[in-house]
Write a structure and sequence with these properties.
Helix content is 20%, strand content 28%. The longest helix is centred in the last third of the chain and has 15 residues. The protein starts with a strand and ends with a helix.
């Protein structure tokens, strides 16, 4: 568990289902505290008891439910996903819906990305100069930012990438400094600049 900014905690866990490390965040700088794409950290749930239980958990897409049920059981955390993704969840997984453009508790603004899936969402968090959290629209590659592999993009990866570039370019109109990724290390301080460089370098 690493406090990357005041009141912003990041951690990495190994996701057995995709055989890869994934990333989660807790933001206590908001009121109330919120989770993003949560998995239980190696420190366990006691860590959250000692730092203030999260009230809400926001999913950037339906595939990032991860360990949300554990937080719901332990703390009564309310789990949220865009309405287009609710078909993923049965009655055993209670998930509230939001729409793109909606301001959620925090306040956290849910922004449309779409393209990869209708519910793909960017989350704008008004803390520490502005934070944007992304799910699968952009991933960390170890050498910078990138897209998910072509085989995950359907029959026309080129069209998907063009759509993602347009959606991500809209985010550059926002005022933010930091970028949180569900698949990649957080970019603290230069997140907006890194996203601009990636879009400039990745073609049109």
């Amino acid at each position: 568990m690493n406090e990357i900014l005041p009141g912003v905690f990041h951690w990495t866990t190994f996701h057995e289902g995709i055989q890869s490390e994934v990333h989660s965040c807790l933001v206590t700088a908001t009121d109330p505290a919120v989770l993003i794409d949560p998995r239980e950290p190696v420190e366990g749930m006691d860590w959250f008891r000692n730092h203030g239980p999260p009230v809400h958990a926001y999913l950037t897409n339906r595939h990032h439910y991860r360990h949300s049920d554990r937080f719901a059981r332990e703390f009564g955390t309310l789990v949220w996903c865009h309405s287009e993704g609710l078909h993923e969840f049965g009655p055993d997984r209670k998930v509230r819906s939001f729409e793109h453009g909606e301001v959620l508790p925090g306040p956290v603004t849910a922004l449309e990305v779409g393209v990869l899936c209708p519910e793909e969402t960017a989350l704008l968090i008004p803390a520490e100069g502005g934070i944007v959290a992304l799910g699968d629209a952009v991933i960390g590659t170890g050498k910078g930012l990138g897209f998910v592999p072509d085989f995950l993009m359907g029959d026309d990866p080129g069209a998907v990438k063009r759509g993602l570039r347009k959606a991500l370019a809209r985010l550059l109109e926002l005022d933010f400094r930091h970028l949180l990724l569900a698949h990649g290390e957080p970019l603290v301080g230069d997140g907006r600049d890194a996203l601009r460089r990636f879009l400039n370098d990745s073609g049109s």
